[in-house]
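Homework help thread (please don't just give me the answer)

Our assignment gives two proteins as sequence + structure token strings and asks us to describe the second one. The first is just a warm-up. Here they are:
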Amino acid sequence: MDLNDYKYYNNRELSWLDFNFRVLEEAYDTTNPLLERVKFLSITSSNLEEFFMIRVAGLEEQLQAGFGGMDISGLTPRDQLMKISQKTHEMVEMQYKCLESELLPSLGKENIKVLKVNEIDEEKKEFLDNYFQTTVFPVVTPMAVDQSRPFPILPGSGINLVVELEDEKEERLYAFIPLPTIFPRFINIPCTDGTCLFLTEDLLKMHSDLFFSGYKVIEISEFRITRDGDLSIDEDDARDLLIEIESSLKERKTGFPVKLEISKNMGKNLRDFLVNALNLRSDNIYEISNLLDLSSLMEIANLEGYEHLKFEYYSPQPSPSFYGKEDIFKVIRENDVLLHRPYESFEHVIDFLRQAAEDPQVLAIKQTLYRVGKTSPIIDYLIKAAENGKQVTVVVEVKARFDEENNIQWAKELEKAGCHVVYGLVGLKVHAKLLLIVRREESGIRRYVHMSTGNYNYITAKLYEDIDFFTCKESYAQDVSALFNILTGYSKPPTWKKLGVAPTSLRETFLRWIDNEIDAVKKGGKGRIIIKVNSLLDVSIIKVLYKASMAGVKVNLIVRGICALKVGIKGVSEGITVRSIVGRYLEHSRIYYFENNGLPKLFISSADLMPRNLDRRVESLIPIEQEDLKQRLIYVLNLYLKDNFKARELQPNGEYKRPTEKKSKLFIVQDELMKEAKKKFRKFIKKQEVDKFNFPKLK
């Protein structure tokens, strides 16, 4: 059997679009609160924008270069672009059907109204006129197009108005009005009941004549360009990586266009003018029936005063391992600790770093940073540690896509504070999430380690599901120290005692453990693999999973997004199930379970099963060996396999459907994990003999 055959693999891009359809399902799901449905619709739009900026742009470049090679599913760039266009047009139609038929009417019933020009009474018009004159008009810059002023390079992703004008000689002229991005898209108009919103582009249309005094406005319509957003950085030639990336970031705003969205009502003259100027294939033009750029609906989703239309507030629970304990180092000396966020609080990770920054016995701190966010207590404590005289080394990945500007700024701040900053490695992204603290103790120098599946970002820590692991066992600490030496200096990879590390050994580690399950079954034992990841794309991994299924190993895959593996192929993948869960929190952790003949092996990792993670990134795989923590992870994985409402199962025909087996009780894994975290903490508090009023105040 030739497992290289194209028929055994799904296309990466089409699989990703299937994932975005699953997010769109959440916008349609009436069991979700209304503003959460609005949020899901917004997310589908921002997801799609990023997909076109990176993935579609890459395929367009291949097409222009005449590349005709096939991907693992047997599709050429031209084939992929054609299928992407077909699927995306279907998605856009479903997005706007959701907006117009379901969300806007439902918002109206809750007195949240997006008003049109003809719905504005005199009082509201007076408010809008004043807002326009005092706030908007001084900021907006119209841009004419003529012989001396050619078609401007309009930034990607923003809303623009294109205007057809007529001068006194009855000649037709064209101009643009870019929407200012410093203001909210939705203007909140004072009204007696509920919330009245008005689009900024409609306000500009109402006053368009003021921008073109002496000219007649024939037509004005909105459009939106999506541009290539992938940075092309020649790292080998870059004398200073920071300067090179900062320069490339400017190019992102002016990359070649890959998608044009126009109003469905746009006249032929304006349409032809835009299409000719942008030189786009017709496949990449999308006619939109309502407001462009649905990602701006996040402004409505985040409206204050409508908590009854959002998910019930959930506060991440303190971990019983850390809560009320003044000395975090003592806790970790006694036992390894696992946190499952956002069900448990990321505050413990921040406290770990805070205590290290303040503790006079701490000599050094080393940390990797991938996505930190715009504000960060993590950065604050690293700076404080440096100011307190500790040796602080930070590996900041300045190539983290769409976080480059933030990370460059943080790198400069850290350097200014006296931290030793390393900007990743040439040709590799540092994606591993590691924190190493070196402390002087009575018994000598001891190293404490934090490793995670998620970023050191305290905002997304409340929205993304991830696993954190704390230990001070020397075998882990030696590996993490050795990895930092590779990242910051000249050091060859050692023989790893505990960690699996990409790009040197991680793929081989996965292949070895899957082969181990195959051997166990061949010798008459039981074999089982459970893997929870964001994406599964690597062909070598998929092949060996097929072989495992063919040998009789039971394989359960929980894959949130891209999945190139196919299920239900006779004689190949009948023993494999794939499910995806999209819910309130973004499933982000990577957990790997291997039955190992009754002695299960459990790992957490920063890595998905994709070529980029295994070949072009620094990633870490961490074994969880403490028995109670292993059992906890096994329990969590089994909960994910029980979900019968938010889960979607991959079918042999490539579709994703809700689990078909009849269950008397609805089971939603994220809801269950929230309940359990609360229950566990309450139970812990009740057991305490000390006065609970002396415990730290809950946040």
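The one we have to describe:
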Amino acid sequence: MPAVTDSSTPDTSTLPPYVLALKERVAYLPEPQVERVVRAYQVGAVAHEGQARKSGEPYITHPVAVAGILAELGLDAETIIAAILHDTLEDTALSRTELSGEFGETVAELVDGVTKLDKMRFSSRQEADAESFRKMLLAMARDLRVILIKLADRLHNMRTLGAKDAPSRRRIARETLEIYAPIAQRLGMNKFKAELQDLGFRALYPDRYRVISERIRAALGNRREAMGKIETALSTRLTAEHITARVVGRIKSPWSIYSKMRSEHKTFAQLMDVYGFRVVVDSAMSCYMALGSVHSLYKPVDRRFKDFIAIPKANGYQSLHTVLLGPFGAPIEVQIRTAEMDSVAERGVAAHWAYKTDSGPANSAQARAREWLSSLADSQAHTASSSEFIENVKIDLFPDEVYLFTPRGDILALPRNATALDFAYAVHTDVGDHAVAARVDKKLVPLRTRLESGQLVEIITAPSAVPNPAWLESVVTGKARTAIRQYLKHLQHEDAVDFGHRMLDRALDALGTSLDAIPPAVLDRFLETAKLKRLEELLSEIALGNRVPHLVAGQLVAARGKKSSDVQSAPHAMEKIRITGAERGVLSFGNCCHPLPGDEIIGYLSSGKGIVVHRVECPNVVELRKSPERCVAIEWDRDVQGDYRAELRIEVINRPGVLATVAAAIAAANSNIENVEYVERDAAAATLLFALEVKNRKHLAEVIRRVRRTGVVSGAYRYPL
């Protein structure tokens, strides 16, 4: 391969037609930069020499086409060059050093950001895709141009999807609809979004796409005259009021119609019975004047007006939306915006390069995109799993938003169905972590309350309040979900360290020593040998069952230089560890015997799970005792809080209403029923298995007493015995 650093003026006499076409498209760039773009093609062509696409074309045609898509957006030379070279680091011998030497560090950074991770080893294809996507989002956070190249790459791949086999087409199309089209929407790039959605729809559901497309064509043929009349009437009225405006008819895409048919349960006829128009004017003030003008022409439909100029969407989109009752009895949807707003609506973050905007930063699509990306970067820092991260991102790529006000008058955009708890975390993680309730329009409501656009929301906090695992079920934003999970993981770690400390102390106590008596140098040497950074890690490992406490105690004592006879002290000499049940991060309760406070119990160290608590009379304990080093002597503390699962086997006379009678007796004993099932049943009798929540063994005994008093029960006992 010729040296990449030969930067002489490129010879353009032998350029293929598709490169000449690109050269024309980038004519908005200064001549020296156009030459660098051509030079990038030549370097890319040499690097990809011998490689072909599935269609049989030379591979270089793909990156050149991607560059062409970006040139239509008017992007800078570095982005165009990076697009031409975006697959070189992954698929060719070209090195990053050569790339940055020839085209600069920025181009190398962009190419590196776009490079996929297919060559890395992952446990599954899904994990590889998730990790690749995660890397792309982090690269986006550093430079937005990375995602523009990635979206253009995906768009060209979708345009040329026909060469792929059917399973690949479906997989790529689904990924496009679930991830890439929503990202384009989130970045305000509606033109990209619309084409990605329609290409994805066509590839994933070809028959549905064909049927809907044909019906759209037929419907448009029937209503062309009506659309022409409405367009003329709008233009005439605006001209008469001296408002310079461009009026264009809007046609719904097959994907948008299909999506609305599914989500809104509407028929094709209902969705097509709407006329859509866009009015483009010269200033924001003219938008409001044009609104008054069209409202005087046709009557507006009540509650169908939205002002996205005063309150822009989360992706920077601005426009006035109104619905009018037209001359043919059908609604007319009108969008009114300036040329600049139209550019931002079509190109989103890319409008910055193509359209010299003088909007304030609050309305800038780029500022909002960067804000979103920085929140994603924070989220990924606290999310260990790539798959969990991608799920959080999918939640965040919402198409519908609610706009809410803080007490200071700031506006927050959250996804539809967001709760007061989502709002609390959107304000700040600390506010979310300490939230106890909310005031919505000055009325006190629970944190799980769903919010609606226009509401004023105030979060009430308390220093002692902490996140609850149940919160995960009532939040919809990725930020809230990540913050709650992070807190719970931290809590589990704290529980594990505390519990591990108690277990190691008991083990060392049985050997006649304590953790404080182990010299720091001995402890440091032990941690280094065990490849652990801190004592907390060792304690956590013990609590989670990954290390056996009395073996660790023995090794520490031996390392201190004690005699082996001292080390061999039997573990049964250890004092029992008391549990309150609040150590849920470290403890779990055996489903085989459902131990309750008041039961005699034993703990078993299960690797990765921590201590699994069993009743001493549990049938499985015989087997567990065969590994005495993993058995932990534990007992219930005097002060135990919370509810515990228990199972009751109840034999009843089979007659109408018996189940309700038994359930009422259980409820009267202040016990909650989780589940009930028939185990056996015949004409005369039935056996029911109830899963309940009780406080302790005494509470369960009270439940059984009440059940036996009903007169419909022939037997009631704890299960298993």
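TA reply:
I won't write it for you, but here's a hint about the kind of observation we're looking for: The chain has a mean pLDDT of 82.
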